């Protein structure tokens, strides 16, 4: 699984994450970000073209060396300085109250202890700062949820621990965030079991 997780999964994520269908969603989730932000699960940098001009610096948290390599061209073409700050969002090497905002896209499904990561993100955000999120998780309809529960073990094996059944809004509130905007919907072109999206903003 080492070679598969390290060399194959990042390329799959890069290909899937760069489709035209998700570009409007990336643009939406990045709206309103400003100042110095932290992006967890930076991946191969597909959000870079959509950072608002008001974003002055990005601390990228990305465990995959290949994902970071694949991001180089996008970072070089962007207008915002991006640095690879650390590898693990469960243990962020920053002081409290550091960042003006945070960004997470299709990330909370895979972090082993996503609750710990959210608590860390909240800790390093300034009071009143916002986490902008776009995640897939447990569907709003029970018939879809049944399929998600059946497919979840396979999903985890194929995509490096990705879960289909995490309750995104509940996780955010349990970590101490207040959700001020939330849109729950099915992504276009994706199976409902894998495309139950939550897009919104949660503040510290």
Topology diagram in text:
Elements: H1 2-17, H2 23-30, E1 35-40, E2 55-61, H3 65-77, E3 82-86, E4 99-105, H4 114-124, E5 125-136, H5 142-158, H6 168-174, E6 178-186, E7 196-203
Parallel strand pairs: 1-2, 1-4, 2-3, 4-5
Antiparallel strand pairs: 5-7, 6-7
Structure write-up:
By secondary structure, the chain is an alpha/beta fold. Helix content is 35%, strand content 26%. The protein has a 7-stranded mixed β-sheet, sandwiched between helices. Helix 1 runs parallel beside helix 3. The model has no long low-confidence stretch (mean pLDDT 96).
Q: In percent, how helical is the residue content?
A: 25-40%
Average of pLDDT: 96
Sketch the topology as an H/E string, one letter per element: HHEEHEEHEHHEE
> What is the count of β-strands?
7
Gyration radius from CA atoms, angstroms: 16 Å
Q: Which structural category do the helix and sheet elements fall into?
A: alpha/beta
Separation, N- and C-terminal Cα atoms: 37 Å
pLDDT < 50 runs, ≥5 residues = none
Biggest β-sheet: strands ordered side by side in the sheet? 3-2-1-4-5-7-6
Count of individual helical segments: 6
How much of the sequence lies in strands comes to 25-35%
Largest sheet: 7 strands, mixed
Describe the global form: globular
In short:
This protein has 204 residues and is α/β, with parallel strands linked by helices. The chain has helices at residues 2-17, 23-30, 65-77, 114-124, 142-158, 168-174, and strands at 35-40, 55-61, 82-86, 99-105, 125-136, 178-186, 196-203. Helix 1 packs parallel to helix 3 (65-77).
């Amino acid at each position: 699984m080492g070679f598969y997780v390290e060399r194959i999964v990042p390329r799959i994520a890069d290909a899937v994450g760069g489709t035209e269908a998700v570009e409007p969603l990336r643009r939406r989730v990045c709206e309103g970000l400003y100042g110095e932000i932290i992006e967890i699960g930076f991946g191969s940098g597909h959000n870079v073209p959509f950072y608002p001009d008001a974003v002055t610096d990005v601390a990228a948290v990305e465990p995959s060396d290949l994902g970071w390599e694949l991001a180089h061209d996008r970072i070089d073409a962007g207008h915002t300085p991006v640095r690879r700050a650390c590898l693990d969002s469960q243990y962020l090497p920053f002081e409290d109250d550091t960042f003006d905002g945070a960004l997470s896209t299709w990330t909370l499904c895979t972090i082993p202890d996503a609750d710990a990561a959210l608590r860390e993100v909240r800790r390093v955000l300034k009071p009143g700062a916002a986490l902008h999120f776009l995640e897939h998780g447990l569907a709003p309809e029970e018939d879809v949820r049944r399929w998600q529960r059946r497919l979840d073990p396979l999903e985890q094996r194929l995509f490096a621990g990705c879960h289909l059944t995490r309750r995104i809004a509940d996780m955010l509130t349990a970590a101490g965030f207040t959700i001020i905007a939330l849109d729950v919907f099915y992504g276009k072109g994706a199976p409902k079991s894998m495309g139950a999206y939550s897009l919104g903003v949660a503040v510290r």
